[in-house]
Amino acid sequence: MNEDVFKNLVSHCKEYGFIFQSSEIYDGLSAVYDYAQNGTLLKNNIRQYWWQSMVQLHENIVGIDAAIFMHPTTWKASGHVDAFSDPLIDNKDSKKRYRADVLIEEHVAKIEAKIEKEVEKAAKRFENFDEKMFRSTNARVLEYQKQTEAINTRFKTALNDNNLAEVKQIIIDCEITCPISGSRNWTDVRQFNLMFDTKLGSVSDDSSTIYLRPETAQGIFVNFLNVQKTGRMKIPFGIAQTGKAFRNEIVARQFIFRMREFEQMEMQFFIRPGTQKQWYEHWKQARMKWHNALGIDEKKKRFHDHIKLAHYADAACDIEFEFPFGFKELEGIHSRTDFDLRNHEQYSGKKLQYFDPELNQSYIPYVIETSIGLDRMFLALMSAAYKEEKLEDGSERTVLALPPALAPIKAAVFPLVKKDGLPEIAEKIMNELKFEYHVTYDEKDTVGKRYRRQDAIGTPYCITIDHDTLNDQCVTIRDRDTMKQERVAIDKLHSIITEKVSLKNILKKAI
Ligand code: ATP
Predict the structure, then answer these.
(1) Which residues of 293-327 are buried (b: 16+ CB within 10 A; e: fewer)?
(2) What SS3 class is residue 133?
(3) Order of strands across the sheet with 97-99?
(4) Which atom of ligand 1 is nearest the CA belonging to 318?
(5) Which residue, 155, 181, 179, 156, is CA-closest to 168?
(6) Which residue, judged by its Cα, is nearest atom 26 of ligand 1?
(7) How much distance in Å is there from the Cα of 215 to the middle of ligand 1?
(8) What is the secondary structure of 187-235 as a DSSP string?
(9) Residues pairing with 264 in the sheet
(10) pLDDT in tens, 447-473
């Protein structure tokens, strides 16, 4: 998908009631979005798919819903007060602010693109490719590879040593320019904490500063023992949660990919120390299976191991998805050791240990975490589903080929005309189906136009009632993907639709 199609997808999201800019009448709020009527249904369905696969289908995983506000010491213990920051740099001419790490990564990506181009060019000229050309192409590719390796090594060392002066020097040595001003007039690199803070109650001294949680995970850690005891959970067990998280992102762009207020779906899996490698592998594979069960091209997903591990991790990888703007992180799988529980134990002075009856000993469990952004999953699904199609008769349609179980509306019911008792039959059908799924009614315009409207929001089925229905109790059901129409008895509708839209079919493949 190229940039233009991505732009079309963004406008499609607005035009068809999926996503609106927040407070649009006041010209919006940067990197904050509202989910509209269809978007909310799709988002709820994704959340439900995740929740059921985690909580309903795993006897040893339970779900909670912790508050967004937490005791401020939580964020000291978790390391967020001291270490949850991004290196930022300003261009003095354009006054634009950038993430220093992103500037360097984008520079490396440009060199990598050059390598790919050289290789592609060489492959095209393969037939009359002489030795001299081969040598010079090879030399260029090797030179580019040397450059990227050198930058990556320097950058990794600078990050590990927290050497911000060196990060700036890399930007200068790579001759990276500001995309707006074109200049290399940079400020020093500074660390910028991403947590939003606010005040609790009416006291305005420092001790009342609290944070909007930057991740949902800590609500699970501080409740670990409460859940373990009240649920009589035995290790290994998991606690799952979905909810809002807030980060004051420096560069927030690419629509809902990077927002300042977003939703996470996280699961912390508590295990015996020493078993982390095996469980990390288990959850890596399990999460990929969950993604693949949706039927989206497997080539659009890949694992990416982290070079620099976060302060709490002993192994970490991302599941990346090929968004219209390239492969980017969709979900993180982290082996968090006992970092969080150990620190909470230390800061709170309360024991957070589990007594393992099989080993007859107490210990602080290790944790494997799976963490996925609901909004990023929404964007991944929308970008895989959005299609501008040319039909055989020369006409065009825009269709959202969403997995039917996640589609906002499952069926649309149309009377062919607004008279002769057809709307009444349509209404009767609606009133039956609405107890099972979200259905909608439409009697405006030609049936062809009504089909197009439903295609654009991803409705798997359209049902048309015509004059023959009055005699034969049959209707025409039209499939979104094949556009095939079939005549079926009204009393068969329920089983036909259920077969196609049931979440059960996907859930069975997901675990
Ligand atoms: P990134 O490197 O893209 O900033 P991250 O590594 O900081 O992400 P995590 O802290 O691992 O992300 O958060 C887990 C998940 O939460 C991510 O995989 C992503 O799907 C989602 N997420 C994180 N930050 C944002 C954001 N600003 N907007 C939307 N989703 C986000």
Answers:
(1) bbebeeebbeeeeeeeeeebbebbbbbbbbbbeee
(2) helix
(3) 97-99, 85-90, 190-193
(4) 18
(5) 155
(6) 258
(7) 9
(8) ---EEEE---EEE-TT--SGGGEEEB-S-SHHHHHTTHHHHHHHTT--S
(9) 243, 373
(10) 999 999 999 999 999 999 999 999 999
For residue 258, how far is its CA from the centre of ligand 1 (angstroms)?
7
Instruction: Quote the tokens at residue 176.
Output: 């990276």
Residue 168 CB–ligand 1 contact under 6 Å: no
Residues, the chain? 511
375 lines ligand 1 (CB under 6 A): yes
Burial pattern 451-486, b for ≥16 Cβ within 10 A else e, equals bbbbbbbbbbbbbbbbeebeeeebbbbbebeeeeee
User: Which token pair is 59?
Assistant: 């006897």
For the beta sheet containing 61-63, the strands, ordered from the edge strand earlier in sequence to the opposite edge, are: 61-63, 237-246, 261-271, 366-373, 326-337, 315-323, 301-305
- Residue 264 CA to ligand 1 center (angstroms) comes to 8
Nearest Cα to 381, choosing from 390, 389, 372?
A: 372
CA of 242 to the centre of ligand 1 (A): 14
pLDDT in tens, 168-206: 999 999 999 999 999 999 999 999 999 999 988 876 666
Specify the pTM: 0.89
Mean pLDDT over the full length of the chain:
94
Using DSSP's 3-state secondary structure scheme, residue 343 falls into helix
